[in-house]
């Protein structure tokens, strides 16, 4: 989470850049300045322009930023459709392999999921084809004595004028958007094609079964891709993508399992409610706290004056370990407790609480309503409930 920076908001959605995205952006900028090749009539890269490397870098920077903006458009189109169907989008993060729109829940309605997912590759293909038409209309780039369709172009053979620079920019945007559109339609999680496949399957199968089937197909794809990548000549990029697809598919299965198992279960169904809750007064010493920890075998407790008072903080075993042992009788809980309380309301979905726990890498959440503590919920409580629900699905 800390590896992302927010660059702004579009449609009210925070847009973040992940550090891996910045790395790939700089690689792209350098790559498009240092190479030039022809693919299907398009010229990709500025090296063939007859100008200085500095100017090539400048054009390459503009082209790369424009291209990455079209990736953002792809994500925004997913988000736009999701939002118009009542799904809240928390943020969009751009990573090395493209973007991810974090949504509060994945729509369980196959038709909505289908529309929402297809919008992304749809926009990519639309931009790709539109820029290709523009390229064809204003161009193509005139190349002296090099009318081949594929292959590298020698440096400085294209006359330097703004039109040629614009055409190369259009070519890059066109080629990579068409590539992205097609790549994303591969029927494998975590690509859009995997979701489209799941949505189709979910019209006939239960949601979890549909996910499992789509995941199995995605993993098969990943293994095939990895195998092809490992055959000589070894293609490390393909192997890397195969890894990304394989683990992405696995992650999707786990997420869906959690989401489906916890469907309809609220925080209040799982939490340890207030009457049974052990709290620690702020003036308690660390020694007294350790005794409580031994007795009740919990690793974290809310800190408050009394049961009806507002929570002042949370104290965990992790905080205790920061205090040297000879000071345990003198240091008070209020001096080492964490005052920044991460909490949930009792009415929200337990799956959402699990996401908050995972995102913040903490063990427990206070359940608070109207500034009063209602209970505490731990990762363990949620897992136990999930196991139980899977053993006795009709209980609740
Ligand atoms: Zn997409």
Description:
- The protein is an alpha+beta fold and 396 residues long.
- The chain has three domains: 4-185, no CATH class; 189-261; 267-391, Roll (CBS-domain), CATH 3.10.580.10.
- Helix content is 53%, strand content 15%.
- Strands 1-2-5-6 form a four-stranded mixed sheet. It has a four-stranded mixed sheet with strand order 8-13-12-11.
- Helix 2 packs across helix 4, helix 3 (110-138) runs antiparallel to helix 4 and helix 6 (207-230) runs antiparallel to helix 7.
- Bound molecules: zinc ion.
- Zinc ion is lined by residues 74, 78, 120, 184, 192.
Number of helices: 13
Report the strand count: 13
Mean pLDDT: 84
Ends: how far apart?
34 Å
What's the number of structural domains?
A: 3
Which segments are poorly predicted (pLDDT under 50) over 5 or more consecutive residues? Answer: none
Q: Helices and strands in order, then pairings?
A:
Elements (H helix, E strand, L loop, with lengths): L3 E7 L2 E6 H16 L2 E3 L2 E3 L8 H32 L4 E7 L2 E6 L6 H29 L12 E2 L9 H23 L7 H11 L4 H24 L5 H26 L5 H4 L1 E2 L12 H11 L3 E4 L9 E4 H4 L12 H4 L6 E2 L5 H11 L3 E6 L2 E7 H13 L5
Parallel strand pairs: 2-5, 11-12
Antiparallel strand pairs: 1-2, 3-4, 3-7, 5-6, 8-13, 9-10, 12-13
This protein binds zinc ion.
Summarize this, please?
The chain is α+β, with helices and mostly antiparallel strands. Helices cover 53% and strands 15% of the residues.
């Amino acid at each position: 989470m800390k590896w992302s920076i927010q660059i702004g908001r579009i449609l009210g959605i925070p847009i973040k850049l992940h550090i891996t995205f910045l790395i790939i952006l700089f690689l792209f900028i350098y790559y498009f300045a240092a190479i030039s090749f022809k693919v299907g009539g398009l010229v990709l890269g500025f090296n063939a322009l007859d100008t200085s490397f500095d100017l090539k870098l400048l054009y390459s920077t503009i082209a790369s930023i424009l291209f990455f903006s079209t990736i953002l458009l792809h994500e925004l189109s997913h988000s736009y459709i999701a939002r118009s169907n009542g799904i809240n989008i928390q943020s969009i993060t751009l990573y090395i392999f493209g973007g991810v729109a974090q949504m509060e829940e994945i729509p369980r309605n196959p038709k909505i999921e289908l529309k929402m997912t297809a919008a992304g590759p749809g926009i990519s293909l639309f931009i790709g084809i539109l820029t290709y038409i523009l390229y064809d209309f204003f161009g193509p780039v005139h190349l002296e004595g090099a009318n081949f369709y594929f292959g590298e172009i020698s440096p400085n053979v294209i006359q330097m004028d703004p039109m040629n620079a614009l055409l190369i920019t259009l070519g890059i945007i066109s080629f990579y958007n068409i590539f992205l559109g097609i790549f994303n339609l591969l029927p494998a999680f975590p690509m859009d094609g995997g979701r489209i496949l799941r949505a189709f399957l979910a019209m006939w199968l239960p949601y979890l079964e549909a996910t499992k089937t789509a995941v199995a197909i995605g993993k098969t794809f990943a293994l095939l891709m990895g195998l092809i990548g490992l055959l000589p000549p070894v293609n490390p990029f393909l192997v890397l993508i195969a890894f990304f697809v394989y683990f992405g598919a696995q992650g999707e299965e786990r997420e869906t399992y959690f989401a489906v198992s916890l469907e309809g279960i609220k925080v209040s169904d799982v939490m340890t409610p207030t009457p049974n809750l052990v709290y620690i007064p702020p003036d308690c010493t660390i020694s007294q706290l350790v005794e409580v920890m031994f007795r009740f075998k919990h690793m974290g407790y809310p800190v408050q004056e009394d049961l009806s008072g507002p929570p002042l903080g949370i104290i965990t075993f992790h905080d205790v370990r920061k205090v040297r042992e000879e000071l345990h009788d003198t240091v008070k809980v209020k001096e080492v407790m964490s005052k920044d309380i991460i909490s949930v309301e009792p009415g929200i979905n337990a799956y959402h609480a699990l996401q908050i726990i995972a995102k913040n890498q903490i063990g427990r959440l206070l359940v608070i309503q109207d500034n009063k503590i209602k209970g505490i919920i731990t990762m363990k409580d949620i897992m136990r409930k999930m196991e139980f629900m899977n053993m006795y699905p009709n209980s609740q």
